[in-house]
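Hi everyone, sorry if this is the wrong subforum. Our group has a chain we'd like a structural model of before ordering constructs, and none of us has done structure prediction before. Sequence below.
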Amino acid sequence: MRRTVGIGGIKKKKEAAERFRTAGREIEQTQIEHIRSSLSIFKSNLEAFAVKHKKDIRSNAVFRAQFSKMCQKIGVDPLASTKGFWAELLGVGDFYYELSIQIIEVCLATRVQNGGLLAITDLFTRLSSRRGPSAQLISLDDVRRAIDKVKVLGGGFGIVHINNSPMILSVPIEFNKDHTDVLEIAQQNQGHISISGLCSALSWPAVRSEKVIELMMENGIAWVDQCDLKQFEYWFPSLIVQ
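Answer:
Right subforum, don't worry. Here is the predicted structure as tokens:
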């Protein structure tokens, strides 16, 4: 007959389990303290590096991008705010604030021409021209970071990718895959498309193509050419510019 575990045996098992839990917590706490210590040392070294290379971070766009990527790996974003230690040390918070305002101004100024959809390379060219030769140099990475700051303000600002080409959207429209599919087909067709062309290229029913086009027309992204009464052509100014 198998012997049952007595009260003493149960007590010993509970004590052993508690010792294991205590040991586990101690090991976990030791690991956490080690990680905290390592991060603290790394951040101190990062601050020392920033002080040493402050001039390069502020004036060299490529160096600034590499520095930012290095910081992101440990969850530090020294370029994100106009306040705090990093902003005071590097003076780049105001730089991104100023760049964000300029991006908004360019997008609003060109909206009547492109319907609120602007290639990021075109935006970069316009910004560089607007800032002038004496201003601090910028990079595409700077532009993307500034757009991320603008997105929190709402108003439809964001980045969409058309055939792997990043474009700035500055109209309050919820972009989905249907919209990007239409733009990709139009881009391949020199910036315009017809309903029948969409149906053929994407295997869509006419009602789906019409619904997507209508929404894009309402927001000024697409324009209609009614010269051919049998079949309207829909043009996308932002793609024609490219």
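For your construct planning: The mean pLDDT is 78. The radius of gyration is 28 Å.
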